[in-house]
Amino acid sequence: MIARPTQRRGFLVVGLGLAALAWALLAGWSASPWARFLEHGDWAARPGFLGGLCAALPGGGVLLPALGYAGGWLLMLTAMMLPTALPVLAVLERMTARRPDGRRLLALAAAGYLAAWAGFGLAAHLLDAALLALVRSDWPVLDSRMLALAGAFQLSGLKRRCLDRCRSPVGQVMARWRGRRPGREALAIGWTHGVFCVGCCWALMLVMVAVGAGSLGWMLALGLAMAAEKNLPRGRLLSTPLGIGLVSAAAATAALA
């Protein structure tokens, strides 16, 4: 069944409203004493109440930073990536609008999408912690390498293939929706779209990890770039100039280090 235009508009308003709320919460968080949990680094080693709490609680040096990072990562995903997932979710919403379990199916698709990004977030967090331990005194050079890696990936064939899949929301849904096992199919739609989204955007998100999720300016710039690549009619053409810009920024950063 196909949803009515008013239903489609309501769905988009809710989705964009959630993203706007996530941006507002991130802005408030970055101005709070808990802002350190949005930054890469050794949270437990920093002075103050939170650092002391991490040190005092059993396992607090790992558990509290991990929980803080997970909360920040979830908000960052909602703010930056939810708008890029709305086209696929909107297609599924139109196809299931008349079903009594339509909302549950949308929730399952969103859960599958977030699960793919959560896996990437965990891997990025572990990589970030390992790099901090290995090259704590060499962050300017490391940041230039992150920028160079992201720029090179923007120019790669794998980036283009993943981006093409992300820019085909109808094809993503139709390839997996049969209506025979609706819950499993909805979850698979979200998960598969998330995997291609990670494949398309992982390098740009690593830049976000390198500069810290508390940098709202970087978040906004990268979020707009990823949304434009996936959703604008000529968004595919942005990948090359963005890659060249990142490689140039990497060279400039390394030269100034």
How many individual β-strands?
Answer: 0
Strand percentage? under 5%
Our measurement of the CA-to-CA distance between the termini, rounded to an integer number of angstroms, reads 58 Å
Helical residues, percent: over 70%
How do the SSEs run, as a string of H and E?
Answer: HHHHHHHHHHH
Major beta sheet, specifics?
none
Average pLDDT value?
Answer: 78
What is the total domain count?
1
Count of separate DSSP helical elements: 11
Structural class: mainly alpha
Overall geometry comes to globular
Quaternary organisation: single chain
User: How many whole angstroms does the radius of gyration measure?
Assistant: 19 Å
**Regions with little confidence, pLDDT below 50 for 5+ residues:** 42-47
